Amino acid sequence: AATATAVVSVTMFSGSTKALLANVSVCPLRGFGTEALWLRPCLDLEAGQLTAHGSGRALVREARHLASTAPETAEQLLDLAGGRPGAIDGPMVTAAARLNDEAALESFRIVGTWLGYGIADLAVILDPGTFVIAGGVSYAGDLLLEPAAQAYLSRLSGRGHRPIADIVMGR
pTM for the complete prediction? Predict the structure, then answer.
């Protein structure tokens, strides 16, 4: 990300998803870190579909729904939550997914897909060299990154005429 000409940091908080744009003409923020996002310098995705479907809260909502409606797919997830779907939280979804819990993995596929759609839409507008995914949900690593990258590539408009941005996890 350090050598890219434009970087978009997409930060997934528990209840929202926001983007910080750096080194792009609509918002030159050279030198700012992701903490500048709280200042809402450029793009606030709060009211959009990315927040509704591509945030930490969305991950938990999906996992709780699947654990309630298809408990046979959520054995590890329900074990971690003491058998109570309403007690499921984000770290539990990540832990269960790492144990190959079907419901937890599906929750990451759903949220990762929405994230990928969102960054594909941002790419069409901004043509960044890199997307940096940050925030609590990003600690899940490839559980989130793989479906996001697949959705990004499938949704990116004009793929043959624009560069494909790197998608990396923030550190």
Answer: 0.77
